[in-house]
Amino acid sequence: MTSGPGLFSDIGKKAKDLLTRDYISDPKFSVSTSSVSGVTLTSTATKKGGLSSGDVGAVYKYKNTLIDVKFDTESNIATTLTFTDLVPSTKTVASFKLPDLKSGKVEVQYFHYHASLTSAVALSETPTVDVSATIGTPTFVIGAEAGYETSSGKITKYTAGISINKPDSCASIVLGDKGDSIRASYIHHLDALKKSGAVGEISRRFSTNENTFTVGGSYAIDSLTLVKAKLNNHGKLGALLQHEIIPKSLVTMSTELDTRALDRTPKFGLALALKP
């Protein structure tokens, strides 16, 4: 792959990940193991609202092909096939879920030094087509995406975004929901490994005049322990503690509190991820 502006989905992703990644509200347990043949097996169990669910997955990589298969407790089988450089500078992703034969989708990503293009087509009788494109450099990116429904001949979505990236910071603006919403974010990293940083995000929905402003941050206490926190103008406060108990294996504890309704029980989450 060539270095370039990246995909449209990458615009604003760094700020979103700091504000949402690893925040959980339910117990979660996952175990991964790898074999000498290149197969990685993962088992995940989650308990939500008194109900338990889980899945078992296997990932196999051979040269430029990646095969990912998951089985869940509802007897669904999800398969994703990823092919890199079938055609130079491209990535092809085919996914489908059984027994839902209409869930299949094929996506082709093309990367260039100054542009990227993605096209995804649903494998159904009346397929939907999603197209996104970016132009620029790794430092400055402008892009757009659109969705088209062949059965009705209507545009289902269109979004535009711009991003400015530096080694220690990233700023982005995304106009989405057919022009009904706008989101601006800025993230600044405080260390070279990007384990500590601060982020601010403001979003507005024009149809409802609703504004949401969120600030958050992460701080690496040491090489094994990370804490994160976030707060928005609606009074939702979240906090997270993540510790590497053994190499590559993490325990994560998080909580969410509504500061405007302190009589409500806070939400707590616990996740344990064991990797070889």
TrEMBL record:
It comes from the Eukaryota. It is found in: Membrane. Keywords: Ion transport, Membrane, Porin, Transmembrane, Transmembrane beta strand, Transport. GO terms for cellular component: mitochondrial outer membrane; pore complex. One of its GO terms (molecular function) is porin activity. Transmembrane segments: none annotated. Coiled coil: none annotated. InterPro entries: Porin_dom_sf (IPR023614), Porin_Euk (IPR001925), Porin_Euk/Tom40 (IPR027246). Belongs to the eukaryotic mitochondrial porin (TC 1.B.8.1) family. Forms a channel through the cell membrane that allows diffusion of small hydrophilic molecules. The channel adopts an open conformation at low or zero membrane potential and a closed conformation at potentials above 30-40 mV. The open state has a weak anion selectivity whereas the closed state is cation-selective. This is Voltage-dependent anion-selective channel protein. The lineage of its organism: Eukaryota, Viridiplantae, Streptophyta, Embryophyta, Tracheophyta.
